[in-house]
Predict the structure.
Amino acid sequence: MDADFAQLRAVADAVCYEGYLLYPYRRSSPKNRVRWQFGVLAPRAWAEANGACGAGRPGVSGAAESWYQQTVCLFEAAPEAVLRVRVRYLQAQHKSVQRRTGGDSWETVEALDLDGELHLSFEEAVPRETDIEVPLADLPAGERTYPVGAPGGTDTAPLPTRNGTAARTVRHRDPVRARTTVHAERLAGPGGLHRLTVRTENTDDSVPAHAPREAALRGALLATHTLLGGDGLEFVSLTDPPAHARAYVSGCDNRHTFPVLAGAGDGRRTMFSSPILLGDHPRVAPESPGDLHDAAEIDEILSLRTLLLTDEEKREARATDPRAAAILDQVENMPPEVFARLHGAIRSLEPAGPAPHDSVPARPVPWWQEGGDEGVAPATDSVLVDGVAVRSGHRVRLCPRGRGADAHDMFLVDRTARVAGVFHDVDGGVQVAVTLDDDPAAELHGWYGRFHYFRPDEVRPLAGCHQEERPDGRHRRVGA
């Protein structure tokens, strides 16, 4: 199980520590003034007054503060199975740079230059994790609760100088008070189907509702996420469940987190419950050499921009946080062959052929050669769906498939949309670009080309309702 969880660590750190420290990794950068955007479990009184769950708002966003996080998923297991849960988060830590003012008196300063090396006071964080192991046979009888908090503490370390100036760093952590409750229930159906609930709560009652956010974060669980695994059990995908489990998926009431299958290949031994929405089996690209804490950015661009920081900017970044210093070291010492891989990778060199039921002839040359996209016209091309040649202007109903669909597309099931064009991707497939009927910004999205894309088997034509273009360039509605 440790090996399975170790495979998830890279994905969990890249996703959940996103925003820990953003490029250009300096304390003075405005986007590093507001920290800890995802998976924040704050003290309850404060969260109910200020967070996602306050004022009757149930909230599901992982980016908004709550006081709890609830994972509900399905798994199949034999009676002798053993469940393993790992709760991971960051604990806030304030680093103060101090200089001696005389005797045993010390003064905290925002910055201190010692022999040319800069030291800054700043907010850091310490990774915490708690492992829970419980036999499945113990869970249906009732809930099991475990402490998952972390103690507070203060660490003091001297800052060596050549000129005798007395200086030090003081790192202080407030205690984190939290618990995780685990419960499982046997469901009807084959395969030993169970519903699992894992709920992590911040139990700190010392922070008042009117406290500033900075005070609440001192006792909060930051970037909270959960890894699930075990012996003798297999988890069920909530986005693409087998037929016998589909009826139970709607009963999985996840709050402030989104559980997905994880691990290598198509295995079902582990599940990753993240405050950020992902698809099943997320992974870090093999070309990526390490965490940059900017998971939404492109590694090559970010690495190049980091190399272009001035010496003074790099000096400030190194003084801001040890993780920032590690990022600079990683980029500056990256071997040329590793840097070359960041430019991109072609997973397949097969020429693009026609998609199933595609009414447009195959392109005569591969897409990566000159002229490879000649003859492709998204505004007039069509694709055959249920016997209808669907093209720009047609209205369709969206029915994204569970397996292989973008996780965000699952929110658009049964919504109606208008086709903006039929596009060919570089792998030879066809994508239907649409704008949503009930989106007030649909016309604006169409104007600058921002669409939702679906495979032909993920749309159903709506009979008798499409648009035709009039001679004056305007559109009129025809049909029912």
